[in-house]
Please model this.
Amino acid sequence: MKPGRVIVGLLLAGGLAWGGVTAWRSRSRPPAALGNAAPAAAQDSTARAPSGVRVRVQVLNATRTRGLARLATRYLRDRGFDVVEVGTSQPPRDSTVVYDRSGHPDWAGRVARAMGGARVEARPDSSRYLDVTVLVGRSWRPPTEPLYP
Model:
């Protein structure tokens, strides 16, 4: 057998194996991990923290999806919000809710727009050093991120 044919055969076999592994991995991931379960246009990319103001935010994962609060934290920090606390909350929620803790409905509204139009509720709490609390619900999806190989 000629060496050129052996090399071509090995390259074809490697390409087929790579394609099979890639197809298998894409099927084994849940839809939420792919990041395309909800349209990215639902989030307002222009919603940012007011300039010169420190808006202290608490982000709580109110779902069974691990790491959702961390993704929301990164997303809000990229928009200028100061996330000072991350955790989990019970019971699980379907939709995201933003609580205004400090009497600044504009700040809570900005966070809600950034999170895709979440509902805002006034829940003042002077015992906490927080301005806004975000309960991330099951329907929130982080925006897709570009792939840099």
Observations:
- The first helix runs from residue 3 to 28.
